[in-house]
Amino acid sequence: DATIRQIAAGEVVERPASVVKELVENSLDADASRVSVAVENGGKDGIRVRDDGKGMTESNLERAVEKHTTSKIRDISDLDAGVGTLGFRGEALHTVGAVSRLTVRSKPRNGGAGGASGTAGAGAELTVEGGDSGELRPAGCPAGTTVEVDDLFFNTPARKKFLKTDPTEFDHVNTVVTQYALANPDVAISLEHNGREVFATEGNGDLPSAVLSVYGREVAEAMVHVDFEATGPGPVQSVSGVVSHPETTRAGREYLSTFVNDRYVTAATLREGVLDAYGGQLAPDRYPFAVLFVEVEPDAVDVNVHPRKMEVRFDDESSAKRAVTDAVEEALLDHGL
Ligand code: ADP
Ligand code: MG
After folding, report:
1. pLDDT value at position 70?
2. Which ligand is nearest to the Cα of residue 49, counting in written order?
3. Is the N end or the C end of the chain the one with fewer CB atoms within 10 Å?
4. Whose alpha carbon is nearest atom 17 of ligand 1?
């Protein structure tokens, strides 16, 4: 039933940034080496994610937007390793299609989409409007996939009313794409807003290069390397990445990015662990830049049950925090900071 479908979709697709997150994740899952994100007016009026990933055949394409009945979350194990995904495995495209005008255009890497339209060598395109799928059509396109989401929440006005201003919605989009760009320096990831490039990473596998592309030269030059193997007891095995000099800070904590087992997470424990390492060196209400990859034993970490959140909790919070502090302290000391 369409109404229930829309309500359910509204629960998981909160705002343009949630759509962007799912689409970028799909592109990375498809083994893309380039992912380009372009949004209009904070994403409210248009979202386009284009990749050069493995693409989809015509039948894949049709299946991709269908409802998958086996994907309801029942317990935490159903979340996959999915820290921070919608949590509904196989549901993202379907869910987005229920509350927008969705177009997916794709061509497999190895030749055309083939199949029903008899257009081997070309790609194919499928549009879904408010949950209604159109016909598969041939479409000229490069290998890979382009997903366009227009008029998000056009059929769910209550949800649409909750959206904030364009700049605020864009901030959320920017935060999401930034996290993926920092977590995947081997992929060239770019972001455009209203036709203007916001950033574009090289995709050369180098974290400092990704930091430079995303945050600019001043910040990149103020970064020091963290490379720490934990020896003590506790869930953390290693901490690596970069953190900024104590005087290179911002007012917002969104520049403090932490990844647990390569997933972006927010965790007060990790954030406080970083801040503790700076001791009294930070000005009040200022946060350093950090991009930290924390490896932990999978059993020692809990994902918040809400699929929209990216929060994690550790069995042993104080050990986790201490490991991060030790790692960052060591890095700062190494640089006489
Ligand atoms: P999930 O990612 O959990 O499988 P989605 O609804 O996000 O569910 O995507 C459904 C399916 O569509 C994916 O499993 C994949 O086969 C295909 N797909 C989606 N996006 C892409 C993409 N960018 N490139 C290739 N295949 C894709
Ligand atoms: Mg997905």
Report:
1. 46
2. 1
3. N
4. 64
